Structures are given as C-alpha cells and as structure tokens.
C-alpha cells in the first residue's frame, strides 16, 4: 500500500487563520488527479504544532472523506507527550486513516530507551499501522538505527520516515530493510535513497510538483538509475527553495501561486519574505510548473 511519492500536505487556511476546508478538498483532488501515491495529513508541513486537537482530527477526517479510498491517508499523530500521541493516534484511527506517522518527541529530549518506550506504548495502545519519523534537525533528538531495529519487532510498526543522511539510510537498510517500509524525509536525497533500496519519499516538494516527484519515484523504484537522476536533477533547485525559510512557509506560498489555497500560516510562523519570492518562482519555472 505504501510506496512512491507521499505528499506531506499543507493545511490551507483562511486569511483569519481558520482552516479552509474547501481548499483542502481542492488539494486532495489535485493530488489524486496528479498521481500522488498517498497523503500525510497534519504532519509538520500541515502545521500540526499550532492546530488544536479538534482542528487536527477535523482536517484528517476531511482528507479521509474527500479521498474516499482513491489514495491512502496517513495521519500525523506525533507529540512530545506520550499520552497525547496515543490520544491523537486513537482519534485518527477512529476517522478511518490507513496509517499514522509519529514523530520523535521534541523539546523534552528523551534518551534512546525513552524513545523505545514512547513508541512501544503507542504501538501497544492503538492497533493501527504506524510509521516512525526521525527528523533530528527539528526535534534535536536523533533516534538511532538500533532503536528503530528494536521497534521493528512490533507488528503494527510498519515503516520509518528518515530525515538524516544517506549514510544513515544505508545503515537502516542493513538493519531493517525488508522489515520496515523506509521513506526519505529529505526531498533532495530521496532519489538516491530509493535507488539504494528505500520505498519512497514523504515529500514537501510534491505539494507543488506532484507529477514530477511521482515520475522520479517511479523511475527510481524501477531501477532506471539514469532516468531517475535526470528527472531528479530538474527538481533540485525546487527542493532547495522549499527550505529558504522554515517549512511550511515557502511551500504554502508556492501552492498559493498555483491557485489552490491562500498562503496564510499561523503564528509564530509568518508569511514568506519578499526576498525569497522570486527565487521560488524561478525554481518552480525551472521544474516546469505553470503558475499564476
């Protein structure tokens, strides 16, 4: 069920900061029609830190309902409180998601044993497929491959989104390849990760270039190394432009240029700086994206 290009979907918002449910419907339809393999709803790119639990689950439910089985939906349900992560995971299961994505707890800096116990508690509390998510650049704590290997023993822990390095990817393939579905959390490294044996990417760039990211993943999964790298090279400038400021500021602004939603983000994030607008438009153009 899970492979290829999985979009880390933005959460569209009205000018007053409320969730724009009509735009959310448009985004889901956009990804269905453009070949995205699955959606992550309300992950980091979906501004999960600033949505209330009610809003969070409301967005997830809307995505599930609008998808209507046309593509799998994975809910972001991570938290730095184990109890909150369990609650979000239960609620997401109740609205019909296909899986949950649970990020390494942030700010409170658990040990490796703490990480193991955290994810063990979630896996044992809720019988739903769970993807672990390691992104030390945002959480500070790095979940080591040996901890992932221990967690792979739980039958409903089915995958990992890893945002670290190609060297880390190789170690994970050696330890849990074939046992867990492995996804790159770095758009710029995803092609090489999949050529090495990963199953796909959870992509920020796919918000604005879904067909192009899908094409790279299809070629890489088919082992067409030269074709995959050629296609990926056309996206590298866009990948980098999506992180000129903190995610999801650039990508939401880029999606707004497609006319699919507004560019509002919630405080403490603010809108894209004027100085970065032209480089993002140039990157979109170089990737062959038509925009208003």
Automatic annotation (TrEMBL):
<dbReference type="InterPro" id="IPR002220">
    <property type="entry name" value="DapA-like"/>
</dbReference>
<dbReference type="GO" id="GO:0009089">
    <property type="term" value="P:lysine biosynthetic process via diaminopimelate"/>
</dbReference>
<dbReference type="InterPro" id="IPR005263">
    <property type="entry name" value="DapA"/>
</dbReference>
<keyword id="KW-0704">Schiff base</keyword>
<dbReference type="GO" id="GO:0019877">
    <property type="term" value="P:diaminopimelate biosynthetic process"/>
</dbReference>
<keyword id="KW-0028">Amino-acid biosynthesis</keyword>
<feature type="site" description="Part of a proton relay during catalysis">
    <location>
        <position position="107"/>
    </location>
</feature>
<feature type="binding site">
    <location>
        <position position="202"/>
    </location>
    <ligand>
        <name>pyruvate</name>
    </ligand>
</feature>
<dbReference type="Pfam" id="PF00701">
    <property type="entry name" value="DHDPS"/>
</dbReference>
<dbReference type="InterPro" id="IPR020624">
    <property type="entry name" value="Schiff_base-form_aldolases_CS"/>
</dbReference>
<keyword id="KW-0220">Diaminopimelate biosynthesis</keyword>
<feature type="site" description="Part of a proton relay during catalysis">
    <location>
        <position position="44"/>
    </location>
</feature>
<comment type="pathway">
    <text>Amino-acid biosynthesis; L-lysine biosynthesis via DAP pathway; (S)-tetrahydrodipicolinate from L-aspartate: step 3/4.</text>
</comment>
<comment type="subunit">
    <text>Homotetramer; dimer of dimers.</text>
</comment>
<feature type="active site" description="Proton donor/acceptor">
    <location>
        <position position="133"/>
    </location>
</feature>
<dbReference type="GO" id="GO:0005829">
    <property type="term" value="C:cytosol"/>
</dbReference>
<dbReference type="GO" id="GO:0008840">
    <property type="term" value="F:4-hydroxy-tetrahydrodipicolinate synthase activity"/>
</dbReference>
<keyword id="KW-0457">Lysine biosynthesis</keyword>
<dbReference type="InterPro" id="IPR020625">
    <property type="entry name" value="Schiff_base-form_aldolases_AS"/>
</dbReference>
<comment type="similarity">
    <text>Belongs to the DapA family.</text>
</comment>
<keyword id="KW-0963">Cytoplasm</keyword>
<dbReference type="InterPro" id="IPR013785">
    <property type="entry name" value="Aldolase_TIM"/>
</dbReference>
<comment type="function">
    <text>Catalyzes the condensation of (S)-aspartate-beta-semialdehyde [(S)-ASA] and pyruvate to 4-hydroxy-tetrahydrodipicolinate (HTPA).</text>
</comment>
<feature type="binding site">
    <location>
        <position position="45"/>
    </location>
    <ligand>
        <name>pyruvate</name>
    </ligand>
</feature>
<feature type="active site" description="Schiff-base intermediate with substrate">
    <location>
        <position position="161"/>
    </location>
</feature>
<protein>
    <recommendedName>
        <fullName>4-hydroxy-tetrahydrodipicolinate synthase</fullName>
        <ecNumber>4.3.3.7</ecNumber>
    </recommendedName>
</protein>
<keyword id="KW-0456">Lyase</keyword>
């Amino acid at each position: 069920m899970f492979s290829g290009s999985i979009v880390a979907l933005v959460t569209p918002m009205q000018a007053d900061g409320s969730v724009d449910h009509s735009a959310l419907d448009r985004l889901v339809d956009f990804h269905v029609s453009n070949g995205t393999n699955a959606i992550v709803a309300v992950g980091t790119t979906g501004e999960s830190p600033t949505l209330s639990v009610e809003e969070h689950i409301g967005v997830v439910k809307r995505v599930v309902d609008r998808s209507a089985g046309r593509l799998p939906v994975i809910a972001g349900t991570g938290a730095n409180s184990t109890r909150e992560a369990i609650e979000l995971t239960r609620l997401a299961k109740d609205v019909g998601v296909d899986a949950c994505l649970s990020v390494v707890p942030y700010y409170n800096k658990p040990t490796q044993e703490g990480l193991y116990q955290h994810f063990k508690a979630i896996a044992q509390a809720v019988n739903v497929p769970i993807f672990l998510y390691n992104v030390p650049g945002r959480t500070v704590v790095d979940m080591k491959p040996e901890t992932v290997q221990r967690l792979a023993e739980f039958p409903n822990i089915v995958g990992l989104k890893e945002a670290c390095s190609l060297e880390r990817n190789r170690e994970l393939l050696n330890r849990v390849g074939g046992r867990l579905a492995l996804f790159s959390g770095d758009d710029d490294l995803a092609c090489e990760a999949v050529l090495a044996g990963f199953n796909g990417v959870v992509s920020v760039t796919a918000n604005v270039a879904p067909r192009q990211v899908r094409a790279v993943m299809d070629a890489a999964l088919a082992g067409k190394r030269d074709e995959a790298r050629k296609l990926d090279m056309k996206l590298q400038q866009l990948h980098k432009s999506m992180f000129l400021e903190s995610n999801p500021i650039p990508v939401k602004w880029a999606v707004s240029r497609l006319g699919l939603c507004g560019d509002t983000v919630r405080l403490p994030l603010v809108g894209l700086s004027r100085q970065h607008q032209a480089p993002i438009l140039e990157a979109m153009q170089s990737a062959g994206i038509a925009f208003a």
